[in-house]
Amino acid sequence: MRIGIAVKPRLVEARDTLASLSSWLGERKVDTVWTTEAAKLVDGGDRKVAEREELPSQVDVVLVLGGDGTLLSMAKAIAESGKDVPILAVNFGSLGFLTEITRPEIYQSLEAVLNGTATHDLRMMLRATTTTRGKAPFSHMALNDVVFTRTALSRMIELSVSVGDQFVTAVKADGLIVATPTGSTAYNLAAGGPIVHPSMDALVLTPIAPHMLTNRPIVIPTERDVRVRSTSSNAGDEVYVTVDGQTGFGLQEDDEISIAKSERPLRLIRSTTRSYFEVLRQKLKWNER
């Protein structure tokens, strides 16, 4: 087995952990490939190094040290590589809802990976394909969400939303969130959307500060793609699209984004010591007074 090691850039507090990991894995004769950021934090040693985007094609498992943003970045790299590589994510951030494994659990979790007893969660991902006039379509992968917002000097924006060939609504709001069940506890939750269990095969459409009081979040199945188009009421670059908080670009009039369930889910190695509902209670203080 070959393990990839990725870390949040400039995460100096992970230096001692990375050094210990290097020794622990070396004693067990485990091959490793380090991202450039991870290798810079560990002194000495002859290590195989790869850029973050290249790592999934060279390893069997990726160990991520950082916060949820670091995990999202690696999830994107894995999805775009087309490889079925699981992630073992260790929390070095402030909340760490996705990176649920704690630092004291690192070696216990790695032992489970090495002996084949690790437990995986399958997390649905999205493929967002943008079609714009005069250009070839391009796509982005997302684990959490695709978010449409107005720019700094914009008015309220208007988006035409369809599911498959069926028109759903014209959203007049500060924006719109199209979230996976995994992403339901991210921006979607802050905007008043529902929590959806990650095992559900569904999407959540949540307007951001809608102009109409009757415009409420809706949960839909994934059999058909969600198509979002910028209407003529939006002037110029008033609509901005953000994918997982990692990538962003402007949307012009009549540009359309088709958001569909991706061909392959992401595999997250989960802690065996707590359930999803326990994570909700611990991390989000869910249902506590």
Question: How would you sum up this structure, described in words?
Answer:
- Helix content is 19%, strand content 36%.
- It is α+β, with helices and mostly antiparallel strands and 289 residues long.
- The protein has two domains: 2-123 and 265-284, Rossmann fold; 126-261, Tumour Suppressor Smad4 (Sandwich), CATH 2.60.200.
- The strands form four sheets. A six-stranded antiparallel beta sheet has the order 8-7-18-15-10-11. Strands 14-13-12-9-16-17 form a six-stranded antiparallel beta sheet, with no helix packed on it. Strands 3-2-1-4-5 form a five-stranded parallel beta sheet, with helices on both faces.
- The mean pLDDT is 92.
**CATH homologous superfamily title of the largest domain:** Probable inorganic polyphosphate/atp-NAD kinase, domain 1
The CATH first-level class of the largest domain comes to Alpha Beta
Low-confidence spans: pLDDT under 50, at least 5 residues? none
Please compute the radius of gyration using only Cα atoms: 20 Å
Shape: globular
In DSSP terms, counting alpha (H) and pi (I) runs of 4 or more, how many helices? 6
What keyword list fits this structure?
Tumour Suppressor Smad4; six-stranded antiparallel beta sheet; Rossmann fold; 289 residues; 19 strands; 19% helix; alpha+beta; 2 domains
